[in-house]
Amino acid sequence: MRKQALLTLSWTQFNRDTQSLRLHKTKSGKPRTVPLNQIALSELQRCRNGRFVFQIEGRAIRDIKHSFASVCRLAGIVDCTPHTLRRTFFVVLFYYIEYLVVLGFSAGREKQCK
Q1: What is the average per-residue pLDDT within 36-52?
Q2: If 0-12 CB within 10 Å is exposed, 13-18 middle and 19+ buried, where does residue 40 land?
Q3: Which of 66, 39, 43 is closest to 54 using CA atoms?
Q4: d(C-alpha 40, C-alpha 43), whole Å
Q5: pTM
C-alpha cells in the first residue's frame, strides 16, 4: 500500500468478514482489495478507535515526513524514506520467491509456480 492510502484509511474500508481492506483511491484509479493475515487483523482490532485507522485526536494523519525523519535520525539511519522501505520490501520479496522456486527445482519438484 502507498503512504497516502495508509494515512487516509478509515474503518469503513475494513471488512472483518472477508478479512480485507478495500482501497477506493489507488494510483491506477481502480479500487482494489488487500487481504489481511491474522497478525494484521489482530493488530487492527486491538487499535480500533475513532474514524481513521491512523489518527491523532480523531483526525487523519496528513503526513509522516517529519516524524519519519526524526525516527531515522535517532536510529542513525541515513537516506531513507517510507518509499525506500516499500521498494526494499518488494525487492526482498522478489528474491525470496525466486529462491523458493529455485529450491523447489533443486528438490526435484516438477510443477512450476503459477
Answers
A1: 86
A2: middle
A3: 43
A4: 5
A5: 0.57
Q: Look at residue 50 and give its three-state secondary structure.
A: coil
Average pLDDT for the chain: 84
Cell readout for 90 is 518488494
Q: Which helix (H) or strand (E) holds 21?
A: strand 20-23
Using DSSP's 3-state secondary structure scheme, residue 16 falls into coil
- Any idea what DSSP says for residue 113? P
Give the SS3 label for residue 62.
coil
Q: Are 101 and 113 a contacting pair, CB within 8 Å? A: yes
Query: Cα–Cα distance between 44 and 78 in angstroms, integer?
Result: 30
Domain regions of the chain by residue span: 3-62
Report the alpha-carbon angle 56-60-18, nearest 5.
110
- For residue 93, give the amino acid letter: L
